[in-house]
Design a protein that fits this description.
alpha/beta; TIM Barrel; 3-stranded antiparallel beta sheet; 11 helices; globular; binds N-carbamoyl-L-aspartate; binds zinc ion
């Protein structure tokens, strides 16, 4: 029986680090285990320009505790006013690795997102020319579409037409939650990858709603039926290089989660690797964990995998804090609902 696992150091290809006191409190939770992360730009106001991305990157590096090594990979929030030249310069200078597309109103802090996709055509064309990835929040915002169908409808109404119109564009379908998402990625000839979160491998919609509303399991895209969770587990552990880890760890203080209108987001940075090892072991595919956490993402982004390693060891129950105390308030750590046994050394 395998009880020790050494992996190239993982990266997180979709992470929310926030800003200010929240950033100070939660950054160590990712930097402890991850070498790099694609950092989401949905601050208030959003990170739209190369200059804003560079300034945010500096704030992240300044918040990093002594002795921790962590490289933030920045993203630009796509708006209808985004300047293609600013985007291409940011990519060339290394100030931004990707552009993030939020349909307006789809999720937390997405009010400045895109409504009219024609208006962002020049940016997308420029990105296709230089090979800069577009990270997509794949949900329609049409109020007549049921929230559980919004990802599948997005693929047909938005993503497929967008990829047809810009064939060279490299796209990451972020945090996929459905068998339709998995199937769409598998059907693409090239230039399409997908991130899968930790929590979507653990919870289905029953976890959110049965026996009372569990606000800490509410995120967007919302967890779907069990059949979809099974499809995600199969994809993540399949060894297919098009699927890689993006935790979408998205901290909100408890006061904003445990509220009449609670914010979307699960905070998983603290215990993600222990949870993933558990899932891959359950699937009998521990040998494929390194691909998912440490190899497929760099390959998609055209970056070398990390040279350093981490070791996971199986033992007694893993102790992790129920909450991370930040200067902004406490943030509840995702509860897998069962004891974890894989320790990160
Ligand atoms: C994210 C957040 O809180 O910023 N929330 C979430 O539920 N995932 C936004 C996002 O990635 O959709
Ligand atoms: Zn996110």
């Amino acid at each position: 029986m395998t009880d020790t696992l050494t992996l190239r150091r993982p990266d997180d290809w979709h992470l929310h680090l926030r800003d200010g006191a929240m950033l100070d409190g939660i950054l160590p939770e990712s930097a402890r285990h991850f070498a790099r992360a694609i950092v989401m730009p949905n601050l208030v106001p959003p990170v739209v320009t190369a200059r804003q991305a560079a300034a945010y990157r500096e704030r992240i590096l300044k918040a990093l505790p002594e002795g921790m090594v962590f490289t933030p990979l920045m993203t630009l929030y796509l708006t209808e006013e985004t300047d293609p030249e600013d985007v291409t310069a940011a990519f060339a200078n290394g100030f931004a690795q990707a552009v993030k597309l939020y349909p307006a109103g789809a999720t937390t802090n997405s009010a400045s997102g895109v409504q009219d996709f024609q208006k962002v055509r020049p940016v997308l064309d420029a990105m296709a020319d230089i090979g800069m990835p577009l990270c997509v929040h794949g949900e329609v915002t049409d109020p007549t579409v049921d929230i559980f169908d919004r990802e599948a409808v997005f693929i047909d109404r938005v993503l497929e037409p967008l990829r047809r119109a810009t064939p060279g564009l490299r796209v990451v379908m972020e945090h996929i939650t459905t068998q339709e998402g998995v199937g769409y990625v598998r059907s693409a000839a090239k230039g399409l990858g997908a991130t899968i979160t930790t929590h979507h491998l653990i919870i289905n919609r029953n976890h959110i709603l049965v026996g009372g509303i569990r606000p800490h399991y509410y995120c967007l895209p919302v967890a779907k039926r069990e059949i979809h969770r099974q499809a995600l587990r199969e994809a993540a552990t399949s060894g297919d290089v098009r699927f890689f880890l993006g935790t979408d760890s998205a901290p909100h203080i408890d006061a904003l989660k445990e509220a009449a209108c609670g914010c979307a987001g699960c905070f998983t940075a603290t215990n993600t690797l222990s949870i993933l090892a558990h899932v891959f072991e359950e699937m009998g595919r521990l040998d494929r964990l390194e691909g998912f956490t440490s190899l497929h993402g760099p390959a998609f982004y055209g970056l070398p995998p990390n040279e350093t390693t981490i070791t996971l060891r199986k033992g007694g129950p893993v102790a992790y804090p129920a909450k991370i105390e930040t200067g902004a308030g406490p943030v509840t750590v995702f509860d897998a609902g069962f004891p974890l046994h894989w320790h990160v050394e």
